[in-house]
Write a structure and sequence with these properties.
Blueprint: E1 2-12, E2 15-26, E3 29-34, H1 41-48, E4 56-62, H2 70-73, E5 77-80, H3 92-99, H4 111-118, H5 133-145, E6 151-155, H6 163-176, E7 181-185, H7 189-192, E8 197-200, H8 209-215
Parallel strand pairs: 3-7, 3-8, 5-6, 6-7
Antiparallel strand pairs: 1-2, 1-4
Helix pairs in contact: 5-6
Length: 216
């Protein structure tokens, strides 16, 4: 699996967040999108996931020597972000059953083992709405990491996690991230410690206002 960014730029109204990013992500591999808050890390991750369109440029996906379009790429991607909505009226068990009706879990993993690994077995049959923020983040991480997809996209994955949760995240990445294409948007080294490749978005900060206007 390969994802190529070709001259990607993003603008909100008249303000350019980043401009002219050309970069390739290859499977297997672990990549970090780095930069301070507001530099566009989360926005770029959503563009990579085909959840948001760039203002300029295009994203090309390559899988098995074919180039699937953005609609065909969704089954290949798992995504986790702090603002990601989950169905909180469901219990954890019900949510996993719903989620895995669309995607397959990793080989050798089932719903019961995910509940056990998540460390919230005692609350598995309680509504997610009653969970703490840290427990909800574990739910989000579990549905992403344990899905059998070649691409794993993580936006600030340790948000709301205590030290035990951070250590659990690191263990999951070590055990279940092998062979996948992982992209992490973060400014916290605990979240991207395993990423050998790093894309610094400040390197693509726009400073040519006349050219930006011309691009309109």
């Amino acid at each position: 699996m390969k994802i190529c960014l070709e001259h990607i730029s993003k603008r909100f109204i008249k303000h350019w967040i980043f401009k002219d990013i050309s970069y390739s992500f290859n499977q297997p591999g672990a990549y970090a999108l780095l930069g301070p808050n507001g530099c566009g890390k989360s926005t770029l991750l959503r563009i990579i996931a085909a959840m948001q369109a760039p203002s300029l440029g295009k994203v090309q996906y390559t899988a098995n020597d074919k180039n699937p379009d953005s609609n065909a790429i969704f089954p290949l991607i798992s995504f986790c972000a702090p603002g990601q909505e989950i169905v909180e009226e469901l219990t954890f068990r019900e949510f996993l059953e719903f989620h895995f009706s669309f995607k397959q879990p990793l080989q050798g993993i089932n719903i019961e083992s995910i509940i056990e690994l998540s460390g919230i077995k005692q609350a598995a049959d309680k509504p997610i709405a009653d969970y703490s923020s840290g427990m909800k983040q574990r739910v989000k991480l579990a549905q992403a990491i344990f899905s059998n997809t070649p691409i794993l996209l993580l936006d600030e994955p340790c948000t709301n996690l205590d030290q035990q949760g951070v250590e659990q995240y690191a263990a999951w990445i070590e055990q279940y991230g092998k062979g996948r294409l992982i992209i992490v948007a973060s400014n916290d080294p605990r979240e991207y410690f395993f990423c050998r490749e790093r894309l610094v978005l400040e390197d693509y900060k726009p400073n040519d206002i006349p050219n930006a206007r011309k691009a309109d």
